[in-house]
């Protein structure tokens, strides 16, 4: 029998799950949809960025709504990856694939987000700056994978979110919800990649 | 069946917990309707490898021989299952036998699954009715509830779900799907329900339900088709409600 109760373990795992959707997943979706403005050309895009950057109290909002949640989710998520051990070679089920892709995409997204923030938030953010990054083929691959993996991590995380919070209990509801998450993955990925395509013209 | 047909076994041998492991192959004369246990019995009778080397008999565990005790669980062609219900006529050859990897090895195909029993104790997977006087009959159980709870009671603590779970390894304290599903079983019981807070509290601990990674291998690996992922999701809901309610009443 367990001698010491440490409910903080449960709490941190639930916070980790919650942060993935609120605010991180919502922010990711907003971020990718907003960047569709790049399709309108450099002038429009730079104007939108300027508005966002000069938004009153943007630094505090970014810190509380974006930076801290992502940092907590990333650090704890890395620990979660460490405590797992894939057995994909023995058990080749679809869900077991998703289990490992969720972890790989999470780790990739951590590296991607750090680089992305360093280059375009700490550094100068403009249409020209991103265009410079993605005209390099490696930069383009790095960005395209960043978008695909981040969106996958969100969509598949949303599938698990519904289980973690006890919403989709049975296999049938889990399957239907997986279709919804797949649709979400496709839509947001298409939006994200069309953001990127705007910088290639 | 053709005369002279043989069954080939490839067995991972290990003389003790700290000894090196090795592969040994055995060829047995084919007989129809054999299972892995009857093959191992043949090896026990004549412990000579395919290359004619005399070796020690292979150690394994078995008991019921009808897939209800779980004692003979081992990795057969890479998948955890019971050796008694693994029929040679349905297996690809050579039949590769390995011990379970998530439990301490004792010898050859025999492992120590004590941790599973310890986990059942951790989550208090029993109904406390012992006392100093007769408590009388308990409350009745609804038939519809009895039907799904019966499915959960088929768990034989064999360890297939533990073996298949990527969240169970040396770096993790996860107690695994079997013990968690038993919480759902005993919480469903009308008398067991009276102590459900104790079992749910145990699931909030380190290694508890939050360590599930949703790979859902467990439900595929379970030889008794127990809806383990449904139990896990249901208890996610119950532990969430319990944790919030307990904190609010503090």
Describe the structure.
The complex is a heterodimer of chains A (201) and B (250). Chain A has 201 residues and is mainly alpha-helical. Chain A has a single domain, classed as Up-down Bundle (3 helical TM bundles of succinate and fumarate reductases). Helices cover 79% and strands 0% of the residues of chain A. In chain A, helix 4 packs across helix 6. Chain A is globular and about 50 Å long. Chain A starts with 7 loop residues before the first helix and ends with a helix. Chain B is an alpha+beta fold. Chain B has eight helices and seven strands. Chain B has a five-stranded mixed beta sheet with strand order 2-1-5-3-4. In chain B, strands 6-7 form a two-stranded antiparallel sheet. In chain B, helix 5 runs antiparallel to helix 6 and helix 5 packs across helix 8. The mean pLDDT of chain B is 96. Chains A and B meet through helix 1, helix 4 and helix 6 of A and helix 6, helix 7 and helix 8 of B.
Oligomer: heterodimer
Task: Indicate the radius of gyration of chain A in whole angstroms.
Answer: 18 Å
User: Uncertain regions of chain B: pLDDT < 50 for 5+ in a row?
Assistant: none
Q: What does the overall shape of chain A look like? A: globular
CATH superfamily of chain A: Fumarate reductase/succinate dehydrogenase, transmembrane subunit
Pair with the biggest interface? A-B, 37 and 44 residues
